[in-house]
Design goal:
430 residues, mainly alpha, 18 helices
Length: 430
């Protein structure tokens, strides 16, 4: 009987791979980013297992292990993703980037506050949850402001826009926005965990100081020489072990375990995107990326086990309208204020509206930290998928009806954030 109790967990793991492969193939047929198909297929699989086969998550043996493995996959992926975002920030300069990033972030942050007002006043207790108001407002602002750097890079590469002015500018703006929003997300999680107490703030502040110290120490000449001399497996083992340890420690301190991955990514020394530490971050991120369908399936099972009456179409429609309207309008106005032509500004707006996996990671962090209730998480989850699928139709409309004012440049382009071109294997699906 004990052996039979593991059947649901084993069957779930066995079904994840074919479901993810099928989702990616369907996405390619529909000319959508593969990650969208993978997420939807995995989420649907989990929902079917819980809602139709009545495999209630907490009733079968192995569920805690599946849940922890899914969260660890997300944390490992974020080590690679945040390190790549950070690697690109050193190349960002200029008035155009500042104005476009300000428009693309500030208006969505404000609209996120409006969404929070609606949730607090009209959403009801099931949608609102019990998170502190300050954490909820900041979390919803972040949810509407995020742009997915990995998905954006894949779209630019597929459309041969990576080395055009609009491609380089959109990447620079996206990196800037995500660097800021991840910091704001960390504050939101601290607010939710602390409830006004100093302990979580102190723990995270100490973690940031340690990350800064490790990064500075790793950037010295002697440390660089050591990293170049030892086998590549040594930095890889250190990065993986540090990521797992940081995830466990931050979770034990009452902070979401994803913040541990964020600290490790910030602590990794800079090596111009070609050294051992960047290679370690990419490999660790690849491990996490491979296992991410497990997280999506587990999330689908949790949502499938929740009462269907908790779902709010009003929240979906309002979140989607505010997210799309704020991102398109803010990005366009920011680019125009920086002096970009109308067609370029429209393309930038369409590209920066992509949220994808970065948004899913942020939402999962807020859900795990108790900031987002299940129905609110689901509403924002649908918004993230919808805004990502909108990118291709919007670009098609702009290409057809707007005059072309961007062309590939012949000059040598600046180095993109580490791992964007050529894309590592674990980013090809993004």
């Amino acid at each position: 009987m004990d052996g039979l109790s593991y059947i649901p967990a084993v069957a779930t793991c066995a079904l994840i791979v074919p479901a993810a492969v099928l989702g990616r193939r369907l996405a390619r047929l529909l000319r959508q980013p593969e990650i969208v198909g993978e997420i939807m297929a995995s989420l649907l699989l989990g929902w079917i297992l819980a809602a139709r086969l009545d495999w209630q998550p907490h009733d079968f043996t192995g569920w805690p292990l599946l849940e922890k493995a899914g969260h660890l996959a997300l944390a490992l992926f974020l080590v690679g993703a945040v390190h790549e975002i950070r690697s690109g920030t050193g190349q960002l300069r200029g008035r155009t980037v500042a104005f476009t990033a300000a428009g693309s972030a500030l208006l969505p942050l404000g609209c996120g506050a409006l969404l929070a007002v609606w949730v607090l006043r009209h959403g009801g207790p099931q949608l609102r949850g019990d998170a502190p108001t300050s954490a909820l407002v900041l979390m919803l602002g972040v949810s509407l402001a995020v742009t997915a750097v990995p998905v954006l890079a894949g779209i630019l590469a597929d459309r041969e826009l990576l080395h055009t002015p609009v491609g380089r500018l959109s990447m620079a703006v996206a990196v800037t926005i995500d660097a800021i929003t991840w910091m704001l997300l960390a504050v939101a999680v601290s607010l939710a965990a602390g409830g006004g107490k100093a302990d979580p703030y102190t723990a995270f502040a100490v973690g940031l100081l340690l990350a800064w110290a490790v990064r500075r120490a790793g950037g010295t000449a002697s440390a660089r020489a050591w990293a170049a001399r030892v086998p590549r497996t040594v930095p890889l083992a250190l990065t993986a072990a540090a990521a797992v340890a940081a995830v466990l420690i931050t979770a034990r301190l009452g902070l979401t375990d994803v913040l541990g991955a964020l600290l490790i990514a910030l602590a990794l020394p800079s090596d111009d995107g070609r050294g051992a530490w960047t290679g370690a971050a990419r490999t660790v991120g690849g491990w996490g990326r491979t296992a991410l369908p497990l997280l999506f399936t587990v999330t689908g099972m949790s949502l499938g086990a929740a009462p269907l009456g908790d779902f709010s179409w009003q929240a979906v429609v309002l979140a989607l309208a505010l997210a799309v309207g704020a991102k398109l309008t803010g990005s366009y106005l920011g680019a125009r204020a920086a002096g970009r032509p109308p067609a370029t500004s429209m393309r930038l707006a369409a590209l920066l509206n992509v949220r994808g996996l970065t948004e899913i990671a942020a939402l999962q962090t807020g859900y795990q930290a108790g900031i987002l209730s299940p129905p609110l998480f689901l509403a924002l989850f649908i918004m993230a998928l919808a805004t990502t699928t909108l990118s291709s139709p919007l670009l098609w409309l702009i290409d057809r009806y707007a005059p072309e004012d961007d062309a590939p440049t012949t000059e040598a382009p600046p180095l993109p954030p580490a791992g964007i071109e050529p894309r590592p294997r674990h980013l090809k699906a993004l």
